[in-house]
Amino acid sequence: MGQLTTTATAEEIKDEQKRINRLRTLVDLTTSIILQSDMPIEKAQRLIEGVKKQALQLFPGKEEAFEIIYRPRFNRIIMEKYRLS
After folding, report:
1. Where do runs of H (alpha helix) occur along the chain?
2. Domain map of the chain by residue range?
3. Is the pLDDT confidence value at 45 over 90?
4. pTM value?
């Protein structure tokens, strides 16, 4: 049986790294904005949903990855910031 292999080109790797860096920056900025402002929890949650929307535009079909990687971080921030139990 033949083995299917795919090799990413240097350009594809560079593009993916750019998208990863963009998402990381967006997550970091959103985290800072939420923690440093006095916005209502509803606005913070809308910001997080906006980050998710952007993440899915950068990485279509990766909703589960967002939920596994970033949702717990945002949930911790919301819990800490708004003193939820």
Report:
1. 10-36, 41-58, 63-69, 71-81
2. 40-85
3. yes
4. 0.84
